[in-house]
Amino acid sequence: MDDALRKKLSTSVRLPSMPVVAVKLIKLLEQGDASPNELAEIIRLDVALSARILSVANSTLFRGVSTVETVLQAVTSLGMDRCVSLALGFSLRSSIQQEDKSGLDYELFWRRSLLVASSAKVLALVADTVPAEPAFLVGLLQDIGIIVLDKVDQDFYQALGPVEQREHQKLMNYERTRLGSDHCEVGAWLLNHWQLPELYVDAVRYSGQNVYEENYGSSVYGPLIAVANELADLILPVSSGNCLDNMNYGMKRHFHIDDNWSALYAETLATHIAEVEQIFEQMLLLDVDLGELLGSAQELKERYRAS
């Protein structure tokens, strides 16, 4: 990032601010040995967040025999890792709102962010290489630089239509042409400005790398996010690129999982996405049947190879 852009960002009064509760939650997550009581204490600092967490704990997805009445009971019921992910997701969503003059499609932004976050979490579970809940958070944060650029200059994305905004590579090419930088670098700058742990800063910095890259810096989440981005592009869908081939390559190259991964992954991911849709009140798949999408794409690929 050049000095002019860095100065523009650092002097802007329109930067999104990280809720205090979210910062405390991330630092607690980094500790690794926090107690349910400590987590509940942080969540209780935000009345609206406490209400959302209690609502989820009492929803049809997680409700047990008796009603969950306290934040501590909700943390115990949902589990600490899931509770942190949900709390962070709610905090970020409520703190970042679209403004009337913005050229950015915020509905698409949140849909893609939640798709990548969900895909990253399930990939982490399937590949068993990194913790799943931090993977969800990295997926949620990876495009935060897009919000920064929109807040600093609401006309910046006006030149891009829905298709270009949907297609990540075209969006990044546009950013690099205009700025000599992209939202990944800007997002990493913001997370550093928020004083988040380096794990998240580095993961966001390298989140634009594709599955064929060898350099993800020190980010253990880089390859995982690269594959998750391909799945998001497959679902949205984008107008170009071979997402399934890229996903298969990424699964083999980085996680040593062969082409037969798609059936198990699709079932697990569909279940998780259904949960996320209900919890965040955001439709992600719309009319897409994930199992059919991955299965049909795989079948077409095999036919092509046989011909």
Characterise the protein shown here.
- There is one protein chain.
- With 307 residues, this protein is mainly α.
- It folds into 2 domains: 80 residues, no CATH class; 208 residues, Hypothetical protein af1432, CATH 1.10.3210.10.
- It contains 17 helices and no strands.
- Helix 7 packs across helix 16.
- The relative contact order is 0.11.
- The CATH class designation of the largest domain is Mainly Alpha
Structural class: mainly alpha
Number of helices: 17
What is the β-strand count? Answer: 0
Strand content: under 5%
CATH structural architecture of the largest domain: Orthogonal Bundle
The largest pleated sheet is described as: none
List keywords for this structure.
Hypothetical protein af1432
Task: Please outline the helices and strands.
Layout: H1 3-11, H2 20-31, H3 36-43, H4 47-57, H5 71-78, H6 80-95, H7 106-127, H8 132-141, H9 144-152, H10 162-166, H11 168-179, H12 183-193, H13 198-205, H14 222-235, H15 243-255, H16 261-280, H17 290-306
Can you give me a brief rundown of this structure?
By secondary structure, the chain is mainly alpha-helical.
